[in-house]
Write a structure and sequence with these properties.
Blueprint lengths: L1 H13 L15 H8 L11 E13 L3 E8 L2 E8 H4 L1 H9 L5 E10 L5 E12 L15 H6 L1 H7 L1 H22 L4 E2 L5 E2 L11 E4 L4 E5 L4 H9 L4 E9 L11 E10 L3 H20 L3 E4 L2 E4 L5 E4 H9 L8 H10 L10 H12 L8 E7 L17 E9 L2 E8 L4 H16 L10 H9 L4 E7 H9 L21
Parallel strand pairs: 3-5, 6-10, 14-15
Antiparallel strand pairs: 1-2, 1-4, 2-3, 4-5, 7-9, 8-9, 10-11, 11-18, 12-13, 15-16, 16-17, 17-18
Helix pairs in contact: 6-7, 7-9, 7-15, 8-14, 10-12, 11-12, 13-14
The structure holds one RNA strand of 76 nucleotides.
RNA sequence: GCGCCGUUAGCUCAACUGGUAGAGCACCUGACUCUUAAUCAGGGGGUUGAAGGUUCGAGUCCUUCACGGCGCACCA
């Protein structure tokens, strides 16, 4: 097949047709033309001249004329080439074009007998010879492996995929507009970090030759953004690629995009209002509705969202009062349910596990789960009131079974922050590889003083999954991580 | 890491209990000036993911490996 096309390539050259020219003047696009003529039934022939370019997707040649569809970045439009218009020689060359080739066409718009908007080819130019056949026009490209590995092919052949990624861009743009219009400053912080932090996860490690030191790809930008709050930027955000050296599945890609937002003088209740309003606004802007369907589940994103305390939710679903139940008993329940707690089972880890087992699967409508155990939240401020010895002011966002975001009233007491880090270091020594590491400079920053601050992180990929009804994170990342191909290309 | 399923022509898929690997699209040649899954006639195309085993004979059965999907585990 490839040889056949290489033969054609040489044939074009010998006919004086350059198979890879340099530029082409385009003045019209498929979608634009369909829009412009949608109400015009009788189009006077020869009046509307256009120059279009795109990839040949279908081709129906007849003796001295032929139809084809070409696809540009906006859609498809039919073209009609005739020998009596092009002349015998040019038409001969036209007939040699393959599905997959990219061409430029100059001609006029008309309607065929069946009413399809079509460009009559008065002149055409080969813009790029394609050497590999496209997947079949009817069934398209179904094989997920090929679709992820050769996303370019997926994009050529499956129009829905293009739509998903256009939506992804619109979602991110809408978030920027939302935050920018409210006085937030978009910033950039290091991807290469000497000390990684801001989350509990294993990092990717790299090495800087000139500095002769290990560097880590960030697992979060949290600690840098809070340094900026110390520095006097009151409202900042960053849309950051983060990297976590962990397993991959439908919800996890080793590199993923997260937005983190910090607002001085705010607490986690402010961040709840911000989160629900922002996501609602983005949905309205991008989808035109707040009522969405995710994997068959009807979801209404209209604020206010339900708020439940983690402790109460566990009691409702399991009957366990985690504030009083003995740890051994809770561990027994976890085991019965098929769960497990890794490392040394602390109270917080047990509570989090019970939550995952009993509550998480039931969260379909947008829900803020609030107030987490302190020992699994080393960067969050203690809950005000008498529960502050065990709980922090933290919430997570669950929508449609997806864990979408994480937020807290940020811990700004440098002495408490040091104790929390020290506690994490102990966990690390006990075998918890994901425990947070000490960051002396961050504590130093807090010692200068950070105003009370609310922080919020939202997984952009998962938000895009939700708003595009995509079952897998790989469907919303253009080039998802894959093992190297074993077979020959 | 564990379990289940998958991998056959460029693409989408067939091939009963083990018995000559096939179709449609794509491709090549020819016919055809409003087709649109164009049509009609003819033609080429395969180390059945890889390696090994059982058998007279393996796409099919067994083992190992690779890649992928889903679930679980791990993990936000």
């Amino acid at each position: 097949m490839l040889e056949e096309r290489l033969r054609k390539l040489e044939e074009f050259r010998s006919l004086g047709v350059e198979p890879y020219p340099y530029r082409y003047e385009v003045d019209s696009y498929a979608a634009e033309l369909h829009e412009r003529f949608k109400d015009v039934q009788e189009i006077p022939e020869g009046k509307y001249n256009v120059s279009i370019a795109g990839r040949i997707m279908t081709k129906r040649d007849m003796g001295r004329g032929g139809f084809a569809h070409i696809q540009d970045s906006t859609g498809r439009i039919q073209i009609y080439a005739r020998q009596d218009v092009l002349g015998k020689e040019r038409y001969k060359i036209y007939k040699k074009l393959d599905v997959g080739d990219i061409i430029g066409v100059k001609g006029y718009v008309f309607r065929t007998r069946t009413g399809e908007l079509t460009v009559l080819v008065q002149d055409f130019q080969l813009l790029c010879k394609s050497l590999r056949p496209l997947p079949e026009k009817w069934h398209g490209l179904r094989d997920k492996e090929t679709r992820y590995r050769q996303r370019y092919l997926d994009l050529i052949v499956n129009p829905d995929v293009r739509e998903v990624f256009i939506k992804r861009t619109k979602i991110i743009r809408a978030i920027r507009e939302y935050l920018d219009s409210r006085g937030f400053l978009e910033v950039e912080t290091p991807v290469l970090q000497p000390i990684y932090g801001g989350a509990t996860a294993r990092p990717f490690v790299t090495y800087h030759n000139a500095l002769d030191m290990k560097l880590y790809l960030r697992i979060s930008d949290e600690l840098y953004l809070k340094r900026l709050i110390v520095g006097g930027f009151d409202k900042v955000y960053e849309i950051a690629k983060d990297f976590r050296n962990e397993g991959m599945d439908r919800f996890h890609n080793p590199e993923f995009t997260q937005i983190e937002i910090y607002q001085a003088y705010a607490d986690y209740t402010d961040m709840m209002r911000l989160a629900e309003d922002m996501i609602y606004t983005v949905a309205m802007r991008v989808l035109g509705t707040a009522r969405i369907t995710y994997q068959g589940q009807e979801i209404d994103l209209t604020p206010p969202w339900r708020r439940i305390s983690m402790i109460e939710a566990i009691e409702e679903e399991s009957g366990i009062n985690v504030m009083e139940a003995p740890e051994e008993e809770m561990l027994r329940v976890i085991e019965e349910k098929g769960g497990s707690v890794k490392g040394k089972p602390t109270w917080g880890k047990i509570v989090a596990e019970l939550f995952e087992l009993f509550v998480e699967p039931k969260l379909v409508q947008p829900t803020f789960v609030v107030d987490f155990p302190v020992d699994i939240s080393p960067l969050a401020k203690r809950k005000r009131g008498e529960l502050g010895d065990r709980l922090v002011e933290r919430f997570e966002i669950f929508i449609g079974g997806l864990e979408l975001g994480n937020a807290f009233s940020e811990l700004n007491d440098p002495l408490d922050q040091r104790r929390r880090f020290e506690e994490q270091m102990k966990q690390r020594e006990l075998g918890d590889e994901e425990a947070h590491v000490m960051d002396e400079d961050f504590i130093r920053a807090l010692e200068y003083g950070m105003p009370p601050t609310g922080g919020l992180g939202i997984g952009i990929d998962r938000l895009v999954m939700l708003l595009t009804d995509s079952p897998s994170i790989r469907d919303v990342i253009l080039f998802p991580q894959m093992r190297p191909e074993s077979r020959e290309v």
